[in-house]
Design brief:
This protein is of the alpha/beta class. It has helices spanning about 1-5, 20-30, 120-135, 140-145, 150-165, 215-225, 230-235, 245-250, 260-285, 295, 310-320; strands spanning about 35-40, 45-50, 65-80, 85-95, 105, 175-185, 190-200, 205-210, 235-240, 255-260. It is built from eleven helices and ten strands. A hairpin with a 5-residue loop joins strand 6 (about 175-185) and strand 7 (about 190-200).
Length: about 325
């Protein structure tokens, strides 16, 4: 009876790999990429791979190429089961057999493994870009990968730029853009201040692009590089009373109505009113505002908004009207 109820044969599980070679192949998951060996040094794991190139030819003359050497390039990969792992790629350096060919040597690249100039492999770089795009800081991601801040930031900048270049949808959704400047200050032995221009989609409240300058030529060049249909679709251009941005709109988008945002209008009015107060102060009393001077005492009341103006403020302005 027990024999009849028992399972005579254990079914195989197709989702579990038991062969070490198959596990390593699944860990890489790239066609034509061969795993050479796996090294473990304490908690750190290093996976060494090599690209199978087959018969390679020179891109200049078409002659057959030969392998000159295979240099080792290490990348910070995603952790495996909580252990930090690095991916070492033995890159082939090829040489042309044609002595008259100007293309003497070159390195065989494969963007599936890692992008040129990036210290994270492609899968780790894409993961880091998604993490930063979802709101995590570069420092948090770098700590999780146990690598330097610049390693993650360079990878995110590389793949983020590619995503922005491919995302043309954000340019086709708006009829109103805004140009605004941001001041970046570098603190150090020599303080360096630089300005960047933010191109924003005013209609949908999102950033379109950030330019590392506020010069007329650079901002105008960015607009000129956009499709003609996009430029014809822009009906409004918001700005902060900058003569540079006003000139950009006038020259590059002459059909767009220029709109100054209320914040800068009010700020300019406050500066003008404060300048008048200072001038009258000097004309009447012959000196700058002091603590007991009537105009100095109401300097903040003059700049108060109507929604915040109360009876107490009116009483403080009455002596000024009597004068």
């Amino acid at each position: 009876m027990l024999h009849a109820l028992s399972v005579s044969k254990k079914p195989g599980n197709t989702f579990v790999l038991s062969n070490p070679n198959d596990i390593l192949k699944a860990l890489v998951g790239l066609k034509d990429v061969r795993i050479l060996h796996l090294e473990r040094n304490g908690p750190h794991v290093e996976l060494v791979v090599e690209r199978e190139i087959g018969v390679a030819a020179c891109a200049s003359c078409g002659q057959r190429a030969r392998v000159k050497d295979r240099s080792r390039v290490s990348y910070v990969d995603l952790p495996v089961y909580g252990s930090p792992m690095s991916l070492t790629w033995r890159k082939h350096r090829l040489r042309c057999v044609n002595g008259a060919c100007p293309q003497t040597t070159w390195i065989f690249e494969d963007h599936r493994i890692a992008a040129k100039g990036c210290l994270l492999p492609t899968r780790a770089a894409k993961w880091a870009t998604v993490q930063v795009g979802q709101g995590r800081t570069v420092l948090e991601v770098a700590r999780e990968l146990a690598c330097d801040w610049h390693t993650v930031n360079d990878a995110v900048a590389t793949y983020g730029a590619a995503l922005l270049a491919a995302d043309r949808k954000r340019l086709n959704q708006t009829t109103a853009i805004g140009l605004d400047e941001t001041n970046f200050v570098k603190h150090g032995a020599h303080t360096h201040s630089s300005y960047a221009t933010t191109v924003a989609d005013v209609q949908n409240h999102q950033i379109i692009d950030i330019l590392p300058t506020r010069q007329f030529v650079d901002v105008a060049k960015w607009i000129d590089e956009q499709p003609v249909a996009w430029k014809e679709r822009i009906h409004y251009g918001a700005l902060d009373m900058s003569l540079t941005y006003a000139s950009v709109y006038t020259v590059m988008l002459p059909g767009a109505a220029q709109v100054v945002d209320p914040f800068h209008v009010v700020a300019l009015a406050n500066r003008c009113l404060d300048a008048v107060r200072r001038r009258v102060q000097v004309e009447q009393l012959g000196h700058r505002g002091r603590r007991d001077d009537p105009l100095y005492r109401i300097r903040r009341v003059l700049l108060m908004g109507e929604d915040k103006f109360d009876e107490r403020g009116s009483q403080r302005l009455q002596p000024l009207g009597a004068r």
